[in-house]
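Pipeline run #58 for the internal structure catalog. This entry was flagged by the ingest filter as a single-chain record with no existing model, so it goes straight to prediction. Upstream metadata was stripped on purpose; only the residue string is passed forward. Reviewer on rotation: M.T. Logging verbosity set to normal.
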Amino acid sequence: MTADPIVLAILAFAGVVVAALVAGGVTLAIQLTKWYVQNQRLWFWNRQLVDHIYLGKGPPAPAPPADLFD
């Protein structure tokens, strides 16, 4: 029958698409976690700079976290 190879091809294509979507979802989750952590570090440093300026402290300004720009 000619329908069997067509069904098999459609199932194989669907499997590839699902695998790509899962891999993309995992990659996205990892990147979002990294961006969230970096955003927290950046926010903390920004808060230190604002407090430093608001309190009228002179130079030097607070240094950024060590791994902020990695």
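catalog note: The chain has a mean pLDDT of 91.
catalog note: Residues 3-54 form the longest helix (52 residues).
status: ready for reviewer M.T.
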